[in-house]
Amino acid sequence: MLGRPEYRRALVFCGLIGVPVALIAFWFLVAVHQLEQLIWTDWPKDLGWEKAPWWWALPLLTPAGVVVGVVVARFPGRGGHVPAGGLHSGGITRKALPGVLIAALVGLPLGAVLGPEAPLIAMGGGLALLFARLVRAPETEASTALLSAAGAAAAVSALFGNPIVGAVLLIEVAGVGGPQLFAVMLPALLASGVGDLIFTGFVRWTGFETGSLDIGLPPPPPLDWTDVLWVPVLAPALALLVHGAFVGGRFAARFTAARTVRRTALCALAAALCITLYAVTTGRSPAEAALSGESTLSDLAHDPHAWPVGALIAVLALKGLAYALCLGSLRGGPVFPALFLGGAAGVLLAPLPGLGLVPAMAVGMAASVTAALRLPVSGVVLVVLLLGNVDTVALVVLAAVISFVLVQRLPQGPDVPAAAERPNDRTPD
Fold this sequence. Notes:
Elements: H1 5-46, H2 58-74, H3 97-107, H4 117-134, H5 141-160, H6 163-174, H7 179-206, H8 225-256, H9 260-282, H10 294-302, H11 309-329, H12 335-349, H13 357-373, H14 376-387, H15 393-409
Helix pairs in contact: 1-4, 1-5, 2-3, 2-9, 3-4, 4-5, 5-6, 6-14, 7-15, 8-11, 8-13, 8-15, 9-11, 10-12, 11-12, 12-13, 13-14, 13-15, 14-15
C-alpha cells in the first residue's frame, strides 16, 4: 500500500489538510474558552458579584436549549452526534458544519455539561471533506473515510495538545479493526498492565536493576499494594456511576426525538436546576457544576483540600445528573465531564486506608473516562498524560480494563439516532 502513488498522494494531502483544520480548531477552542471566561467569570464580577450567583445557570442554559433544539430540528446533520451515543468519526457531511458550530458555540459556553471534543471531531472531518471538494480531489468511499478521519485527528489533537492522543483516539473511534480490534487489544492491554505491576514490584523487592529509560526526573510516590487492592473496588463503582449517566442520557435523547425544540429546552432547564441546586446547597460557584469541568479539574487537583466532603458529594450527584440530561439533549463531547467526575470521586475517596490522592484520582479518572468512551486504550493514554506519573500506569490500565468489561456487559438503554437521521416527529416544537 505504501508503494502505491495514490496512497502517497493521499498521505501528503492529509498532511496539508491538517494545517488549516488545526488552525480553525485552535480558534474554535479559543472562542469557547474566552466565552466561558466572559460569561461565568467576567460578567458576574462586572455586575458586582465575587462569583457567579446561584441562579446564574437558569437564564443561560434555557435559551441554549432552545437554540440547540432549533439546530437539531432544522439544520442538516442535527448539530452533530448525540453525546449519549459516544464519540463518532463518521456521518458528518460538509452541509452539517454550520449546525455543528452553532450548537457548540451556543451550548458549551452557556453551561452545557459537555466538552468540545465531539464538535471538534465532527468539524475536523467536515472541513477535510470541504477542502477536498474545493481542490476537486477524487471522492470515493475509501478516500472520504480516510480524509474524514485525518481531519478529525488534526482537530482533536489541538484539544489534547498531543498528537498521540488524537491518533489513538481516532483509531478506536473509527473502529478500523472492527470487534476484533478490542478482542485482541484488551487482553494485550491487561497483560501489559499486570506485567508492569509485577516488574515494578520485583525491582523494588529485590533491588536488582535491568536497565531503565529513566532520565533522572524526580521520582513520583512509590506504588503500594494497597493501592492495587482498591482498584477492583473503586473502578466498578465509578464505571456504574458514569454508565448510569449515559443510560439516562439515552432516555433523554429518546425524549427529545419528538417535539425537539420544546423538550430540548426542558432538558436544558432541568440541567440548570441541578446546577442551581448545587450552588444553593454548597454556597459555591454554579460554574463548578456547569461546563465541561476541564478547568475545574485542574483546580481540584492543585487544591483538593479546598473541597469539603459535602461539596464533593453534591458535585458528583448534581453534576452527574446534569451530565446525563445534557448527554441526551445538547451537543458536545463526553470526555471532560467524565474525567472531572472521576477526579472528584478520587479526591473524595483518597482518605480510604492505604489509598492516597494520586492513586485514587488515577483510578477514578481511568474508570470514568473509559466508561464514557468505551475506548480503553484512549482512556489509558489520556489519563496517563494528564497525570504525568508513570508509577500509576498499572493502576490506570487495570481500572480501564475493569471499567470497559463491566460497562460492555451492562444494559445500554434505548438506541440513539445517528446524526444524519431526522427525528420521527418532524414537528420542531
